[in-house]
Write a structure and sequence with these properties.
single chain; mainly alpha; Growth Hormone, Chain: A; about 0% strand; globular
C-alpha cells in the first residue's frame, strides 16, 4: 500500500505534468510526417514504393546526434539550457507545419494528381519539419533525463509515451475523420495551433534540479559523451547495446510503416474514417493502456526483464496483421489485430524508453540520448521505411505465384500475409542480442562519475 501511495505521488508532481505535455509536443510533429502524411499520399495515389521512400524525410531523427552537442554546449538567452532549446524549436515547428499545410493545399492538379516539382518542395518542407522536431526531441529527452530521479524513471517513461500517444490520437483518429470533412491541409493548420501547448509548457516546466555542469568547449561536447559512454559500458557491451537499439523495434516499425496503405487503398480497402476510428483511435487507446501498464511493471520487473518480456510480446503481436491479411476485410479481425499490436507495442516502448534513460550520464544527456534514440530511428526510418515499401510492393505484385505456397493459397491478401510474417522474423535478431548485455538476472544499473565541485552532477 505504501509503495502504491509513493508511486501515485510521483505521478501527481508538477514535473510529471510537464513531462506528459512535453511528450504530447514531441508526438504531434512526428505524426505529421508519418501516418497522416502517408494517408495523404495514399489519397494522392502515389505508389507504395514512393510512399516507402518518402519515409526518408524522417532522416533527421536518425542523424540528430550530429547537432545534439550544440544543445549540450550552448545555452539560449532565455529559459536555460533545456527549456530554452525546447522553446526555440517549437516556434520553428509552428511555422513549418503551417508551410506544409499551405503546400498541401496547392499541390494537386485538377485531375487529382500531384505535381512532381511541388512534391519535391513538399519533401523539403517535410524534411525541415522533421529537423525541427528532432531538435525539439533532443531538448525534451535531455530535460527528462536531467529531471527524473531513479524512482521516477518508470513513471516518466510511461507519461512521456502517454502524451506522445495522445498527440498521435489527435493526428490519427481525429485527423483522419476531419480529413474527410475539411481536407488534410486544414487539419495540418489546426495541428500547428496545438503546438502552442508545448511552447507554453516550456515556459512553465520546473527547472531540473540535476543541472550538471555543461561541457566547457564544443570539443568536449562532441567527444566526451561518446568516450564516457564506451568507457562506462565497456567496448564489447557498448557495441552490442547500440546494435540492439537499432534492431529492437525493426519488425514493429515495418508494420507501422505499411499498416495504413495495407488497411487502405493498397490492400483491404477500409475507408479513412474506419482506419481513423480503429487504428488511430481505438488502437492508440490500447497503446496508452499498454504504455501505462509497461511503466508500472517496469519498476517491478526491472529494465532487463522488461526488455525480454515486452520485446517478445511486441514481436508476436505482428501475427494479428498476418491473420487479418488471411481473412480479408473483416472488422472484428481488424479490431483484434490493431488492439493486440498496439497494446504490446506500448509495453515494448515503455521498457525501451526506460532502458535508454538508464544509459545516459546527466552531464551529456542531450548528446547521449540523441545518439541512442537516433540509432532507434535508423531501424525505424532508414531500414524499415524504404525496405518495407519495396518489400510490400514486390510481394503484392507477386500474388499469383504466392498463392501456390501452402498456407497462403486461401489468404485474401497473400502478398501482405507473407509481408507480415517477414516482420516477425525481422524482430528476432534484436531479441537474440539480449543475453549479451541485458541478462535476465542482471539489474542493468549504470553508475556515473560525480564531480565533487558540482553537486548538480550527482
Amino acid at each position: 500500500m505504501k509503495e502504491f501511495q509513493s508511486l501515485w505521488r510521483v505521478f501527481q508532481s508538477q514535473k510529471m505534468v510537464a513531462i506528459l505535455l512535453l511528450g504530447f509536443s514531441s508526438g504531434l510533429p512526428f505524426a505529421l510526417t508519418d501516418d497522416s502524411f502517408r494517408a495523404w499520399m495514399t489519397r494522392a495515389q502515389l505508389d507504395l514504393s514512393t510512399i516507402g521512400w518518402f519515409s526518408l524525410v524522417s532522416l533527421p531523427y536518425s542523424l540528430k546526434f550530429l547537432w545534439s552537442p550544440f544543445l549540450d554546449r550552448f545555452i539560449p538567452p532565455v529559459l536555460g539550457r533545456r527549456r530554452g532549446w525546447m522553446a526555440v524549436s517549437q516556434v520553428g515547428l509552428i511555422g513549418a507545419i503551417l508551410a506544409l499545410a499551405l503546400q498541401m493545399a496547392l499541390i494537386v492538379n485538377q485531375d487529382g494528381q500531384p505535381r512532381s516539382l511541388s512534391l519535391q518542395l513538399l519533401a523539403l518542407t517535410a524534411l525541415a519539419l522533421a529537423f525541427l522536431s528532432a531538435t525539439q526531441d533532443i531538448a525534451i529527452d535531455a530535460y527528462r533525463a536531467d529531471a527524473l530521479e531513479e524512482r521516477e524513471v518508470g513513471a516518466g517513461a510511461s507519461l512521456t509515451i502517454l502524451g506522445y500517444r495522445i498527440a498521435l490520437l489527435l493526428t490519427g483518429w481525429i485527423a483522419f475523420n476531419l480529413a474527410d470533412r475539411i481536407t488534410w491541409h486544414w487539419v495540418y493548420g489546426l495541428m500547428a495551433l496545438l503546438m502552442l501547448i508545448g511552447l507554453i509548457t516550456s515556459f512553465q516546466a520546473p527547472e531540473p534540479t540535476r543541472n550538471a555542469r555543461p561541457p566547457e568547449t564544443l570539443e568536449q561536447a562532441v567527444v566526451q559523451p561518446f568516450l564516457e559512454f564506451f568507457r562506462r559500458q565497456g567496448w564489447k557491451q557498448a557495441v552490442f547495446t547500440l546494435v540492439f537499439i537499432i534492431l529492437f523495434k525493426l519488425g514493429d516499425a515495418m508494420v507501422a510503416k505499411m499498416a495504413v496503405p495495407f488497411l487502405g487503398g493498397k490492400g483491404l480497402g477500409f475507408a479513412d474514417a474506419d482506419i481513423g476510428n480503429i487504428r488511430q483511435g481505438m488502437g492508440l487507446v490500447a497503446t496508452i493502456v499498454g504504455t501505462l501498464a509497461g511503466g508500472a511493471l517496469l519498476s517491478q520487473l526491472g529494465i532487463n526483464r522488461s526488455l525480454w518480456i515486452f520485446g517478445g510480446l511486441q514481436a508476436i503481436s505482428n501475427l494479428g496483421y498476418f491473420a487479418l491479411a488471411v481473412v480479408g476485410k473483416n472488422y472484428t479481425a481488424l479490431v483484434l489485430a490493431v488492439n493486440v499490436e498496439n497494446f504490446c507495442g506500448g509495453l515494448g516502448t515503455a521498457g525501451f524508453l526506460g532502458f535508454l534513460i538508464s544509459l545516459c550520464n546527466p552531464r551529456f544527456s542531450a548528446t547521449q540520448f540523441a545518439l541512442l534514440s537516433s540509432l532507434m530511428a535508423v531501424g525505424r526510418d532508414f531500414l524499415a521505411g524504404p525496405a518495407s515499401g519495396e518489400l510490400a510492393q514486390r510481394l503484392t505484385q507477386a500474388t499469383p505465384s504466392l498463392q501456390a505456397i501452402p498456407g497462403l493459397a486461401e489468404a485474401a491478401e497473400p502478398g501482405w500475409a507473407l509481408f507480415f510474417l517477414i516482420t516477425l522474423v525481422a524482430a528476432i535478431p534484436g531479441l537474440a542480442l539480449l543475453p549479451f548485455f541485458a541478462p535476465w538476472n542482471s539489474s542493468n544499473r549504470n553508475s556515473f562519475p560525480v564531480d565533487e565541485n558540482n553537486p548538480g552532477s550527482r
